[in-house]
Each structure stands twice: as structure tokens, then as C-alpha cells.
Design brief:
The chain has 82 residues and is mainly beta. The chain has one domain. It contains no helices and 6 strands. A 6-stranded mixed sheet has the order 4-3-2-1-6-5, with no helix packed on it.
Length: 82
């Protein structure tokens, strides 16, 4: 058993995606391998069953986020899709 919490981004078009969080950025790995980039003010966060779920709310990112230069994690950071 692992102590690592599972992170998931619920996307309206792609369903549950593996996610990673860096500072205030939430990254989801789309089925086509593309990294999707959102911010914490754009999601609701729910903890359940040992996992953390980020659900997009439709809220806009803060204006200062337009220049966000957070370097996304490598795709390998998302682990396997079992």
C-alpha cells in the first residue's frame, strides 16, 4: 500500500484525468497525452476514498494568471493509467 494520495481532475470532455498540483496550478493528463493547465480558483477540491478530486467550476482564472509560467510536470509524473 502506498501513502501517496491519488489526484484526479474531472474534465467535462475527458472525464477523470490523472492530475498533479504545483503551487496553485492543477495539471491534468488528457487521453491524447496533452497536459491541461488550470488554477486552483477554477476548481472545487474534494477529498474522498483516499483521493483528491479537482472539478472544474467554469470560473475564470485570476487576471494575473495570464502570465503564469509554471513549468508543467513531465508526463511520467502522472504514473500509469491502470
Amino acid at each position: 500500500m502506498t501513502d501517496e494520495i491519488n489526484l484526479w481532475l474531472h474534465h467535462p470532455d475527458h472525464g477523470e484525468l490523472p492530475a498533479r498540483v504545483l503551487v496553485d496550478c492543477v495539471f491534468g493528463l488528457a487521453p491524447n497525452g496533452r497536459l491541461l493547465h488550470f488554477h486552483k480558483e477554477q476548481v472545487e477540491i474534494e477529498n474522498r476514498d483516499g483521493a483528491q478530486y479537482y472539478t472544474l467550476t467554469g470560473a475564470a482564472a485570476l487576471p494575473e494568471r495570464s502570465r503564469c509560467q509554471m513549468i508543467p510536470p513531465f508526463v511520467t509524473a502522472f504514473g500509469s493509467r491502470s
